[in-house]
Design a protein that fits this description.
Elements lengths: L1 E5 L13 H8 L4 E5 L8 H11 L2 E9 L10 H20 L4 E9 L9 H19 L4 E4 L13 H11 L4 E6 H7 L3 H7 L4 E6 L14 H10 L5 E4 L21 H18 L3
Helix pairs in contact: 3-4, 4-5, 7-8
Length: 281
Amino acid sequence: MKLGIHAYAWCTEWSNKTLDILDTVRKENLDFLEIPLLKLEDFDPKAVLERRKAVGIDVVTSTVILTDAYDITSTDPACRRAGIDYLRRCVDATAAVESDSFSGVLYSKYCKADALPTEDDWKWSAEGLREVGEYARQYGITVGLEPVTRYESNLINTCEEAIRLLDMIGLPNVMVHLDSYHMNVEEKSFYEATKLAKGRLCHYHMCECDRGIPGTGHVDWDGIFRALKENDYHGRIGMEGFSDITDNMSTWVWRKLAPNGDVFLHEGIRFLRAKIAEYGL
């Protein structure tokens, strides 16, 4: 099992000014850093690749969200096309840093939660992601679909809904990216939802119920790790938390959840490594 952390534990935006986070994560003997592509124009693949190779650490890209102009479930075909092209550029950026995974709320506009989804929404999402998935497969890249809360999407809130969309897409490299923060709102059981993802899980965000330090809230960690053990999952798990309020996405975090990124890192690592050892993962 590979253990990593999201760059948002230290920064609110990624740029070349935050490259030293790669060094910090490597010093903690983590396996990977999760880098946001939220502002694709600020992502410098050459600089990231050079630094990650210099320090000897893996990276994945994530926190990919779609705006109105890039909504692949829009009734406007031009917007759908723009969204597919944008996601293809995310694939290009991921390939350029020699990573094999990118994920996020890729399936429709972020915070599109004003009406029930239609069958067209499902169809357009599947069609768009099938094209993106085929493109990503050329580079050996897995595309992860992250279910989020009802406040952030009207399409995919649960693992079951993500599996439905995967079945419609029909590609082995389009998979599920679970997040225990969102699951805490939407799933009846952490264990059952994780079990459902067997063989189709590419990433797991290990987040506490308030996005704070793992192990300090009421997430059913034993249910999660028991299911991962039974699923024989040996992929990536990563901590995700926010060091501060950001103005480039809706985190709805209005207070400090840890004194700083280092405390979040050290205490979270200690807890998760203990769980990994306990369940023999």
